[in-house]
Amino acid sequence: MSTTTSTATDLALTHVMLLVGDQDEALTFYRDTVGLEVRIDLPFDGGRWLSVGPASQPGLEIVLEMPGMHPTAEGRKAYQERLDSRAQSTVIFYTDDVDATFARLKAAGTEVEQELIDQPYGVRDCGFADPWGNHIRFATPRP
Known about the structure:
Elements: E1 15-19, H1 23-34, E2 37-44, E3 47-53, E4 61-65, H2 73-85, E5 90-94, H3 98-107, E6 111-118, E7 123-129, E8 135-141
Parallel strand pairs: 1-4, 5-8
Antiparallel strand pairs: 2-3, 3-4, 6-7, 7-8
């Protein structure tokens, strides 16, 4: 047992889970449309560990999780209900050129949730939805 007191200064975010309805479709969307890199694509007993992430953050994995990956029947049911209701997660990416990112994703047919806007808190941003209702935002800090 450790005798030191944790100050949480050693914490680092490594994984974010996004609930999706089809991993192959999610891989195509997040890799080919959004532009993320594949981190891990590994089948395992009862599922498939599939993660992507931005090239600029090699230590971050966004896991594209299916309801069936939850270890309990209750959890699988709750995940499926959440997926069916499109009550999903939000991820926000910073980009050097949010206008170009917006144009690229819109041209690819991605569902726009919010057009480009200058926010009062110092960013220019926009919002999209993935095929399962996860909110994907892109922002560029304003000078």
